[in-house]
């Protein structure tokens, strides 16, 4: 039995005055440490806006815009996660500037010169990944995208890239898989268009399913029907999970990690999404293990399991090839390979209904080179310079990952005269490169011809970097380019896209999240040539 004196002591220790005193002590200790760090470790960091105590430059998240305006602040100028805010800060503090989220120092790099210098000339310093609380909770710092830079990451990335190439990544052998999905998209799009009439069709689900299935074929060895309930549920879960992570109060987990465990609201919702995704992926991994034939691997998952067995047989007890790592590798590839490519395609189609003259010109080029009796192929790419230039111009205007995936310094370094401490988060602002008026004439305008020379040949520009640069460049770049090219050319060959009559014109403004996505929009389509069978028939896959 607990003695009454012990209970009395505990009650006294947990009394309100003691709790308040402890809180004040910790707060004062934090503030003293923070400002001492400002004078020592952060003495020569790049300039930037003055941070708030505890929350840093994220403080304005808690202050309504109307209040910030009344106190003379510009609402968009200190929201640390908005592109416009970062551009505003660059105009004030220069192309290399700092800000804080909580006590975490962030350095933002604007412009091609700075980004190239950091990521290409100092890769060992600027290629690490930050330990962001929310990301760490969800990924355990494993996988490919968010894993820390080092020998384990290099080995995992090399294995995955080599394996994916063996299964068709970036090769013509992958075309039939992509075109099979696009044939389904065309049939379903025509059906929905007839069903909904002038209301139009939202393309997001159709495109997302098609793109996801290509990834599934490479890493899971199977394609799902676009109406498969489990598959569609998984796509929605991943989309919803990303939305929660970047566009809800869940972002506060990065300042107060314990919020993740709150039993209500978006915090509870996020944990449920994580559990559901885990069940789905682990069930597929278990199925692969139970049906594995080492002599006949079907996909990346099989190859990974075979590598695990080989390393176990070799007695490599400290191998990074584990069930856990496989789970996070699959999750990384699935999410990263779906969201970015889907949004790139949606942006392209949005521009086609906004600029019908450009759509007409691209379709005329496709008709001349490909015709109407076979589907486009990657072998046509070199003969479709205007179409390719249009794709590139859309990517330039809307970098779907405008700040790349955050980098981190692996050691303290002096860069461009500033001391950047070890563990600093680095944001390479790709958006600033693609909107730089010193590199692009009339940078905010849509001009596909900027990627063509006087003879109509495609121009390659080193400062066009939608997939990033350096050692963390997107591993799926070749696959994304293939899917993007084949999807837009196949759809433009088959349909004329237009905005639904009577509806307000869609905006070209972005929704900022993990990727830069367009706001939802609808399209109406007309089969080109007026012959549905010619547009959608079996000749598609001949």
Automatic annotation (TrEMBL):
Major localization class: endoplasmic reticulum
Essential cofactor(s): heme
Keyword Coiled coil: no
EC number annotated for this UniProt entry: 1.14.14.80
Biological process, per Gene Ontology: lipid metabolic process; organic acid metabolic process; xenobiotic metabolic process
Biological function: A cytochrome P450 monooxygenase involved in the metabolism of arachidonic acid and its conjugates. Mechanistically, uses molecular oxygen inserting one oxygen atom into a substrate, and reducing the second into a water molecule, with two electrons provided by NADPH via cytochrome P450 reductase (CPR; NADPH-ferrihemoprotein reductase). Acts as an omega and omega-1 hydroxylase for arachidonic acid and possibly for other long chain fatty acids. May modulate the arachidonic acid signaling pathway and play a role in other fatty acid signaling processes.
Name by which UniProt lists this protein: Cytochrome P450 2U1
Organism whose genome encodes this protein: Oryzias javanicus
């Amino acid at each position: 039995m607990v003695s009454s004196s012990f209970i009395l002591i505990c009650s006294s220790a947990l009394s309100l005055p003691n709790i308040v005193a402890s809180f004040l002590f910790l707060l004062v200790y934090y503030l003293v440490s923070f400002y001492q760090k400002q004078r020592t470790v952060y003495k020569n960091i790049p300039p930037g806006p003055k941070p708030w105590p505890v929350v840093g430059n994220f403080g304005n998240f808690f202050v309504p815009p109307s209040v910030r305006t009344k106190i003379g602040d510009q609402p968009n100028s200190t929201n640390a996660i908005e592109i416009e805010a970062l551009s505003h800060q660059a105009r004030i503090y220069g192309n290399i500037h700092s800000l804080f989220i909580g006590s975490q120092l962030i350095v933002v790099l604007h412009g091609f010169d700075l980004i190239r210098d950091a990521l290409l000339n100092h890769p060992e310093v600027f290629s690490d990944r930050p330990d962001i609380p929310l990301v760490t909770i969800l990924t355990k710092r494993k996988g490919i995208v968010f894993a820390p830079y080092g020998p384990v990451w290099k080995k995992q990335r090399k294995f995955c890239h080599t394996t994916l190439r063996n299964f068709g990544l970036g090769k013509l052998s992958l075309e039939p898989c992509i075109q099979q999905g696009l044939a389904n998209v065309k049939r379903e799009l025509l059906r929905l268009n007839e069903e909904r009439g002038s209301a139009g069709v939202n393309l997001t689900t159709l495109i997302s399913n098609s793109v996801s299935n290509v990834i599934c074929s490479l890493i899971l060895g199977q394609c799902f029907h676009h109406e498969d309930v489990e598959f569609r549920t998984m796509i929605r879960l991943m989309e919803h999970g990303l939305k929660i992570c970047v566009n809800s109060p869940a972002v506060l987990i990065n300042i107060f990690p314990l919020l993740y465990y709150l039993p209500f609201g978006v915090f509870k919702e996020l944990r449920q999404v994580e559990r559901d995704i885990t069940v789905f992926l682990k069930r597929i991994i278990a199925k692969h293990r139970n049906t594995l034939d080492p002599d006949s691997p079907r996909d990346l998952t099989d190859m990974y399991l075979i590598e695990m067995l080989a390393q176990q047989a070799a007695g490599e007890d400290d191998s990074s090839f584990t069930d856990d790592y496989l789970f996070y590798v699959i999750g990384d590839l699935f999410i990263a390979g779906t969201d970015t490519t889907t949004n790139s395609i949606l942006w392209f189609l949005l521009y086609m209904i906004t600029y019908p003259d450009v759509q007409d010109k691209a379709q005329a080029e496709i008709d001349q080179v490909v015709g109407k009796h076979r589907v486009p192929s990657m072998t046509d790419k070199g003969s479709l310079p205007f179409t390719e230039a249009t794709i590139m111009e859309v990517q330039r205007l809307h970098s779907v990952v405008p700040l790349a995936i955050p980098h981190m310094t692996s050691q303290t370094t002096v860069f461009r005269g500033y001391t950047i401490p070890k563990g600093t988060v680095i944001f390479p602002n790709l958006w600033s490169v693609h909107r730089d008026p010193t590199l692009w004439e009339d940078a905010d305008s849509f001009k596909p011809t900027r990627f063509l020379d006087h003879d109509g040949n495609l121009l390659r520009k080193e400062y066009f970097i939608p997939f990033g640069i350096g050692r963390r460049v997107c591993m799926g770049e070749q696959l994304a380019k293939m899917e993007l090219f084949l999807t837009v050319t196949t759809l433009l060959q088959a349909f004329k896209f237009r905005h639904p009559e009577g509806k307000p014109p869609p905006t070209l403004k972005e929704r900022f999240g993990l990727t830069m996505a367009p706001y939802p929009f609808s399209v109406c389509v007309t089969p080109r040539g007026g012959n549905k069978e010619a547009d959608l028939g079996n000749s598609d896959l001949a």
